[in-house]
Task: structure prediction
Amino acid sequence: MPGADIADWADSVLVTEPLFSPNELKDNLDEFIFEEMGFQKFCSAPPPLLAFADHKCWDPDSVLSRTGCGVIVDSGFSFTHIVPFYEGKILYKACRRIDLGGKALTNLLKETVSYRQWNMMDETVRRLQYARHKL
Result:
């Protein structure tokens, strides 16, 4: 079996997929997971849906958990997705992508700190990310 090096108990996999990935890529991923990797069980979901499910488990009394209606903001390195939910389902037509993410915010922090306090323009991004996460 192609995935024989995977332990016997690890026969399932969870994969996060981008919000608007084409069906052709999803089909190719399905084929790869089952035929090439040899997994028996497979779940593929966009990160905001997994965040919604996690929130329902940890805070069942919240409005989002009780009604299934709300908004999840998924901010990444290069862009941010705003994902509305209605009755526990993603409203794909109402989703928005903003080309502003952690990289731009780190650069803005670097400029702001350099202008006000210390010259950070030559500092590495790693130090600024550390400082941003400590705030």
Summary: The chain has a mean pLDDT of 82. The chain has five helices and six strands. The first helix runs from residue 23 to 36.
